[in-house]
Amino acid sequence: MKKVLKGDRVGYFYILPALLFMFLFIFFPVIYNTIISLQDVTVSTLLSEDKAFVGLANYISVLQSKEFLNSLTVTVIFTIACIVFQFFFGFLLAMIFKKNTRPFQLMKAIMMVPYIIPATVNAILWKFFFATKGGIINEALLALGLIKDRIGWLNQPKTAVVSIIVANIWCGIPFFMILLSTGLSNVPKDFYESARMDGANAFQRLIFITIPNIKTSIQASLVLGIVYTFRCYELVYVMTAGGPVDSTQLMTLYSYKYSFVTYNFSQGATISNILLLILLAVGLLYIKMMGKDEVM
Predict the structure, then answer these.
(1) What topology is assigned to 67-295 in CATH?
(2) pLDDT digit string (tens) for 101-129?
(3) Cα 37 to the chain's mean position, in Å?
(4) CA–CA separation, 53 vs 71, rounded Å?
C-alpha cells in the first residue's frame, strides 16, 4: 500500500469512487440489459434461473415491426424539429444577451427558468396550455378570431406531435443559449474591431468570425441536444402518454410500453439497446469531428 501511495498509481484511488458509480449505474445495467435482450424474459420467467436463450430473435422481431418503424420515425421527426428551433432561438438569444450589463444578465437568468423547472412540471403546464376547453392557446386564438372552433391539440395525431414539439422547444432553448453564450464570451473582441475597420458588415462578422470561433460550442451543443431530445420521456409521457394512436410514441415510450405495460422485458431491453446504439453512433460521430478539428 505504501509503495502504491508513493508512486503515480495513487491517482487510481481518487477515481475509484467514480469508477464504482459508473459500473453500478451505467455499465452493469447495460450489460444486464444486453443479456436479457438475448433471452425470452417475461413477467413469468423474470425470477427464473433458466431463461430460454433466443439469440438475436428479439432484435429481428423488433426491427421488422411496423410499430418500431413508426416509433423511430416519430422520434427522428421530433428530434430534428426540436433541435432546429432550439438551436436557432438559443443562438439568437445568446447573441442578444452576450453583453454583460445587469439588465441583460437579469433577462438571461429569467430565460433559464424553463430549463430549471422539472420536465414533469413543464409537461403539466403545456398540457394546460393545449387543453381543448379552457386552454390558453385555444382561448387566445378564439379571441384573435384565427379559429372558429376549439382545437383538440392533444387529441389528434398531427396536432399532438406539434404540441409536444413546441413544449420541448420551449424547455430546450435555454440549454443552447447557455452553451453558445459560453462560446461567444471566449471570442476576442479584437477580431470584431479589426473586421469593422476592414469594412465587414454584421452578417460577414457573423459568418467569418463568430461561427468559426464557436464551432466547438456549436458541435457540443448539437450533439448533447440530440442525445437529450432523442431520449426524451417525461414530457411526452405526461402530455400524451404516446397517443393518440401511437402518434407521439417515441422510442423511450415504446421501450417503456413493452417493459412495464405488456411486461415483455426482453423486447423492452432490445428497444433500449437499439436506442443506445443510435446515440452511441452520434457520440462517435462527434468524437470523429473533434479529432478532425484537432488535426486541422
Answers:
(1) MetI-like fold (1.10.3720)
(2) 777 778 778 888 888 888 899 999 999 99
(3) 24
(4) 27
